[in-house]
Amino acid sequence: MLARSFILLILVAFCGGASAFGQTEPPSPVASPTPFGRDKAGVAPDEVKGVPQIAPNFKTDDRSLPDLGRVGVEMTDQRPMTVREAIALALDNNKDIEVTRKNVKIAEFDLQSARGFFQPRLTGQTAYERATAPNVSIFSSNQNTTTGSLVGNAALQGYVPSFGTVLTANVSNQRLTSNNPISILSPQYNASIGFTVTQPLLRGRGFDQGRRSIEIAKRNLSLTDAQFRQRSIEIITSVQRAYWDLTFALRNLQVQRDAVRDAKDQLEHNRRLVEEGQLAPIDIVASETQVANFEQAVYDALNTVTQTENALKNLISPNRYDRVWAESITPVDPVDLKAPSTTLVEAIEAAMQNRPELELNKVQKDINEVDRKFYKNQSKPQIDLVASYTSSGVGGSQNPDFNPSFPTPCSTDPNSPACQQQQANL
């Protein structure tokens, strides 16, 4: 009896534990997930209001380039031009070249003027004077004395280039008239001739102002000639550079146009491949972008053509009204890509012999040396050796108003030898 009760107790305990082990707690409620793309206000992107649609009907259709004309230039009015023609026009029409030509002419005239220092110079002077003055002499009975004077002078002067010697010859003539009764001759002629030789011993003997002017004028002529050649070289170089820049710009424009055509062909090819399913549609967008980039390159190349052509026209045209500004210049000279076969030593020797900058420096150095020589001579004292010779003479007619108040040989004895000698002298 006890055994049965014990077994029954064990079975009851086992069943109660089993039932307790098999029970589970009910699951807690799980929060629903937040929809993807919503913001803190709970608004989805496709639910946002008030956002305008941008180009809803946009389509990437094929289009051709707009007109590639240039302002002020007639594209159909082509003017073929060689580089020699461009250089000739620049040398004829460039204002800087014209100015340098005038400077050369001015230097030539300056040299002729400086050489004229040693040419003989003839000078002359003529003067006439008539004067009336009250008589204050006790030997004249006239109330007033009237005198007239006519003067004529001439001089010839020359310089000897070797030693600075100065040679001078002068002639002087004077005619005097007077109503003074004590004047024996009226009219009276006074004449003289003179020669003078002046030889500088120190200052001016070896190098004077005349020789300095000639030497500087010679070097200024060489200087302006070198400046003319220098400016000509600069103009020719600028014309050649502008000419070949225009050639490159025109060829680059043609290359860019060909690139646009090839890009459009590639775009059509890609469209066929997309229709056949061999390419993704995004590849068409890439091809269209490439076409647009090449079209932009065409406009950039056209702008470069305009700039380079204007640079060339600015060098060869005489003014802004010239016909060449409305023409489209077409370079026709072939491009020579062969490099010159010149060594470095040969290039340096050619530059040392032909570059005008070196000649300009040499001429300026010579001018400074001439000035140094002249001012060194001017620092010496002025000592001259002068030799002169003068011969004078007097002549005329007897004064009709002659009435001396003191005895003369003719007044006392007209037949005396002294009176006859006086008459002969008159």
Main attributes of the structure:
5-stranded antiparallel sheet, Outer membrane efflux proteins (OEP), 9 helices, two-stranded parallel sheet, 426 residues, 2 domains, disordered N terminus, alpha+beta
Task: Please describe what this structure looks like.
This protein has 426 residues and is of the alpha+beta class. It folds into 2 domains: 78-104 and 220-379, Outer membrane efflux proteins (OEP); 120-160 and 165-203 and 383-419, no CATH class. It is built from 9 helices and 7 strands, in the order αβααββββααβααβαα. The protein has helices spanning 2-22, 83-93, 95-115, 209-275, 282-316, 344-354, 356-378, 409-412, 417-425, and strands spanning 78-81, 121-134, 144-159, 166-178, 185-200, 328-331, 384-398. The radius of gyration is 57 Å and the shape is elongated. The N and C termini lie far apart (216 Å). Mean pLDDT is 79; it is low at 1-39.
